[in-house]
Amino acid sequence: MNVPSTTPAAPTAPRRGRLALVWRRFRRGRAAVAGLVVFAALVLFTLLGGLLTPYTHTAVDFTALTQGPSMEHPFGTTAGGNDVYAQAVHGLQRSLVIAVTVSLLTTAIGAVVGSGAAYLGGGRAWGRRGERAVLGVVHFLMVVPAFLILSLASQWGSGDYRVLIVALTALSWMTGARLVWTVATTLREREYVLAARFMGVPGPAIVLRHLIPNIGSLLIVSFTLTVVAVVQAETALSFIGFGVQVPDVSLGTMLADGSASMTTAPWLLTVPATLLLLTTVSLALVGDGLRDALDPTSQAGGRA
Amino acid sequence: MLRYLLRRGAGWVAMIVVATNLTYLLANSFLDPRVNYLQLRPPRSDEEISRSLAQYNLDPGTPLLQRWWTWITGILTRWDWGSSPVGDSVNEQVAFRVVMSGQLVFGALVLSVLIGVALGVYSAQRRHRPADRVAQFVSVIALNTPVAVAGLVVVVAAITINQAVGQTLFYVAGAQTPGVTGFWPVVLDRVQHLVLPTISLLFTSYAGYHMLQRAMLLDVVGSDYVRTARAKGLTRGQAIRTHGLRSSLIPVATQVAFAIPALFTGAVLTEKIFSWQGMGDYLIRTISENDVHGVVATAAFAALATAVGAILADVAVVALDPRVRVG
Amino acid sequence: MNPVPDPVLSVRGLHVTFGSEAGPVRAVRGVDFDLYPGRTLGIVGESGSGKSVTSLAVMGLLPDTAAVSGSIRLGGAELVGLGDRELSAVRGRDIGMVFQDPLSSLTPIYTVGDQLVEAMRIHRDISRAAARTRAVELLELVGIPDPGRRVRSFPHEFSGGMRQRMMIAMAIANDPKVIIADEPTTALDVTVQAQVLDVLRLARDETGAAVVLVTHDLGVVAGTADDVLVMYAGRPVETAPVQELFDAPRMPYTIGLLAAVPRVDAVTRRPLVPVPGSPPSPVDLPPGCPFAGRCPVAVDDCRTAEPPLLPLPGSDAHATACLRTGEIVDGRIGGAPVFTVPDVPDTGPGGPGGRSEREPVLSVEHLRRTFPLMTGSLIRRRVGTVHAVADVDLDIRRGETLGLVGESGCGKTTTLLELMNLRAPEGGRIRIAGTDVARVRGRAELTALRREIQIVFQDPMGALDPRMTVADILAEPLRAAGRSGRARIAARVDELMAMVGLDPAHAERFPAAFSGGQRQRIGIARALATEPSLLVLDEPVSALDVSVQAGVLNLLAQLKRDLGLSYLFVAHDLSVVRHVADRVAVMYLGRIVESGSVAEVFGNPQHPYTRALLSAVPVPDPRVERTRERIVLTGDLPSPTGEQHGCAFLTRCPLARTLSATELERCRSEIPQLVVKDGAADSDADHRSACHQAHGS
User: Which of C462, C501, C558 sits opposite A6 (nearest CB)?
Assistant: First the structure.
């Protein structure tokens, strides 16, 4: 071959390089870093906080009913003599476990359904019909009164958090699926997807190899922000009595307890409200920071 | 155009019918109205309970299909949405509560859109300057504040203020004080009740419009046609106002229209915290009281609100964007 | 010559720097020029050369992140350093601007008339009604039919050409002293480009303004500019009157650029001269001349200090920024050409014997593809049928390149997709390597057929999955074709990389690490992986800069000879097609209107559309470009909806005016078929055209 080789390309930028770049961009956002630190502290608190107290969230100290913060009970006690610190550790853990599980499930379902439908829609007539059918289901589920059905279901499940996980997942995967579908419909027109199709690469392989990896950053961001939304939904349900129920504890039930005696025992309200606010805001900041770091075009000043 | 509207309308009606009937099915399998009679003293026998429930078409002993038929013919022939397990009319409750919710929700909606859009324009024009950063930071917190937390904080703050002033400036519960008469005293009383729930709804909903309006306007500010407008001799500010603002309002208007249904059900927590007898409060009450017919009516109302919101969104887009108008 | 008037616009030492993550981007580094009334300055350069940034800097329309220094004087008044308010008094009144993309540059929610009226009322105290009347006059001036009605249209109701006319109308609404046109025709088809350039000239003559024409197209410059400024890496490297620049370029980059462009009027096929390498990154410029890394005649001194732009001895209009300019005469240095002409094989059809003896690789007969036509984005309803491909015949023999040309919307891309889908077409017949596509049954047969035909796409960025390494990208077709064995696949990947002139050691990199030309080579390698007999090339070089394009075209010629490939080469650029193709088919509204050997079709076009198309292609030679006869078509490509009853080209046909009533009636009622010209010699027996009038007598 006598075709001259062109100048050597820029230094290799494999995956590790990309991660480093994303991390560098992420670190530049001070709010996002603060969010990450706070959220990491909250996670540590749920994992290790229980070691610092002899009480569990169900243990009752009859010598201390509705007591303010003290050496023995750093966050005080409830009217029933429960240690609020122990309840906070357990409640935050419960809320996070529910939120993270639901977000993982909805993101996975959303990715597969959304990109699968988009891929089908780019193909033959039957594929386009399949896409329309999937979208029809998604649209219908988006207009049914989800909060009401959720309340019904978890009322029926009498506070079992696993029922809550199933119900929340069943009623919230559509938003993610629709978002993925919108992005994947533009991806399916990309020439590399066409090229793979023309090479005879089978449909499922195209979805897994070309579509889903290229919406990876979207999925990561959407996962983070879904966690925030699910924490809010779960605590709201628990607050009005339809989510997690006694004897189990989540931040929502603690808020409900606290609201009953907000003037006489303010610590019962302050502790869960603060934890909840810290969780949602810190995670939202992480999500926004991730979006800016992963997608430099979303914000000015981040051009690669 | 008319044919299209009719077809769209028919589609939504079908959607509402399906959603309502689905809820009827779910409510009947998840809720058991007999529970309401079990706590009564003296205890009633199963037959007595069934007889009581049967007069409201709620007896689980009757086949579901038969109960459904009675229920649906009641709605279709007499517009009668049934009764609660203790005999209260659903129609009366809903009629009263929709008005109550409306008072709360629409004030908050209008204020949050006005504040959100104005803030969005303000901070887009000052992008990355301190004012924008502060506004954005506050909005990130507001956007992610759980409604319950916002409501409770407002309540605590109001109680503190009331105590500091030594008289009741704000009421933290209900919509009115019984026994107040005279035009101005009634208005004042209503406002004193409305302020707190409105603030808490406002705080959790304005931020979405702020962020969206800011992002949309920034998109438009960088667009080629705003650059063309500046090339014609408009200053940056003029070009944004005359050429950018209207285009950037299109997605915001859509969002507002879709927010209407969410507002009715989204006010659930706020109504509970402030003991406001609206639709949200009704939702909680009907579910916890096993009021099947009330639950279904709430679902039907939510579906209707969704349909109205979607149609309003279409209308807004057509009004603002000549590209989708059809000759 | 008249006494030299004062320049209306005078730029000195213009620098523009942007901040970026990787460091400051020095987009413009010292631009000087003077602009005289009534004259056109062409600023030429490849992408990233700083030409557009220069024009935006003059307008004061750069984003706030840009740091601008130097001097821009408009009629004596300094513009650099003015605030937005002061500049906006100048913009639109003294300087009008025409942007590249006419679709996104007009506000979608206001009518054309309102936008024109606004342009006038910003600067002048004129009543709305008077401005409206003037708006109609302006639309008429720029050639928009029925301006009284059209003034109430929204931009989306205009075609691309009409939108660009409207942009020009807006730019000249206040009789500016300077008109800046930034790539005004890049987004348009050639026939429309010719119209818009005419309007731009008309606008200049009407207003007496000076024009800055920013473009990458040397042909456009040759036809329109009086003076030319060639930019490279943010600096002017050569400036001269247009004739002199094309006749006697004195800077190696300019010489390379001119030698790399194929010409539509070339009778013999000369090899294109690629400029090796790609431009340096504006973040990390080497010391010395930025072109030194690609320059075949660079000496050590070139790499130490950047040469200033200096006038040549004896000519104050011609200046270069090159140390060796004094030694360069007539594109040669010390008697040897600056760029050595590469050894590219003659790309004529390979194989022994006449054309009819070689086996057909692709044969398409009466291909048809229609789509339902829907209206509105909100209200979707079928209102008709788009005949994207109405009747297409193609015939490619082994070792042959068929160029398929036509304007956007003519159905080229649909035709390609129909071929690549490997499904029975809606109408007609497709045979690939002797196999009728409609008769393929089962996966094995389909896989076998897929190996025969592969495609190379236009956009070298979009065609490669950014998340896969080049090795994975090249292995994908091998795995899909059923090859297995890690070592065998790796060996084939290395072989493919070497075949397209890339270093196999770079196979583990991601596409982002390669330049545009290199990515296109990867795309070609991927297409070649399964050893196809036919390569479909969809605008393979139109996204590349000319200096890089030449290298890719030469590679294609090389591969064709070495591997005995056949190409279906789709392009809108007729110069490129003339350079690479053996045979050509001209497409208009879903039909082939003329086909034959390149020499016949380009040398002796029969169909009036082919003639118009050829005459609209700008030739990078001012002398030819300004003297040749042009046929400028009126209007734009109509949309291919509804059933056709006669000649689709009739609405724009320049012959139509000269026809008698009976001839016209025939054109209206009878669809012309592709036929051989009467009395044709044997040699051009397959030069066919579809025009009732071309075969006359």
Answer: C501
Angle between helices B2-30 and B292-320 (to 10 degrees): 150
Q: Does C374 touch chain B (CB under 8 A)?
A: no
CA atoms within 13 A on the CB side of C397: 16
Of residues A183, A165, A178, A171, the one with CA closest to residue A95: A165
Which of C62, C79, C88 to mutate: most B Cβ within 10 Å? C88
Residue of B nearest to A262 (CA): B156
Q: Cβ contacts (< 8 Å) between B141 and chain A: which residues?
A: 277, 281
Residue type, C164: Q
Which residue in A18, A73, A139, A27 sits closest to A271, CA to CA?
Answer: A73
Please name which of B246, B243, B253 lies closest in space to residue B116, comparing C-alpha atoms.
B253
Q: Residue C387 pLDDT > 50, yes or no? A: yes
CB-based contact, A227 to chain B, within 8 Å: no
Is this complex's ipTM strictly greater than 0.90?
no
Token couple for C481: 């074709």
Name which of C617, C629, C632, C631 is nearest C219 in CA terms.
C617
Selected residue of A192, A207, A295 to mutate for chain C interface (largest C Cβ count, 10 A):
A192
Total number of residues shown for chain C: 697
Contact B227 C61 (CB under 8 A): yes
The C-alpha angle with vertex A253 and arms to A250 and A257, in degrees rounded to 5, equals 135
The minimal CB distance from A191 to the residues C293, C463, C512 is found for C463
- State whether residue A280 sits within 8 Å of chain B by CB: yes
pTM recorded for the entire structure: 0.82
CA–CA distance, A233 with A255 (Å, rounded to integer)? 13
- Do the beta carbons of residue C535 and residue C455 sit within 8 Å? yes
* Calpha distance B259→B261 (Å, rounded): 6
Cα dihedral across residues C445, C451, C454, C460: positive or negative: positive
Integer-rounded Cα radius of gyration of chain A: 24
Q: In percent, how much of chain C has pLDDT > 70?
A: 95
Q: Which two tokens stand for residue C187?
A: 């987004």
CA–CA min distance A198, chain B (Å): 35
C-alpha distance from B301 to closest chain A C-alpha (Å): 9
Mean pLDDT of C422-433: 90
Q: Is the peptide bond before B42 cis (omega within 30 degrees of 0)?
A: yes
